[in-house]
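Work Package 3 (structural annotation) set out to generate three-dimensional models for the target panel prioritized at the project kickoff. During this period the team completed the workflow that converts sequence records into discrete structure tokens, so that structures can be stored uniformly alongside our sequence database. As a representative example, we reproduce one entry of 98 residues exactly as it appears in the project archive.
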Amino acid sequence: MNVLLSIDPMLAIGVLLATAATDAVYVMFTSAVVMRRRFAAATWSSFWYLLSSFAVISYTENWIYVVFAAVGSWFGAFASLTFLHRPGRAVPPGSPPE
């Protein structure tokens, strides 16, 4: 119970947002790789590592922040895939239907 009382709400929100952004950037990176866009893939990859470092450094101090990281990761992947699958957006050749 002591671990739950030591949660810093701002840090928890920061971890959640950082992992949400990390997952969103990872999806964009993967999309760029699939589409063979080297510059975009390299750029998304660098953002991916910058964002993930904040979350990792933050939650290694207290394991409970891993929960916030997991929630942020879920939201980031969901939001970025929602963005990528907008109506009228081209689907890469060979992509399986959703």
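Helices lie at 2-5, 9-34, 38-59, 65-84.
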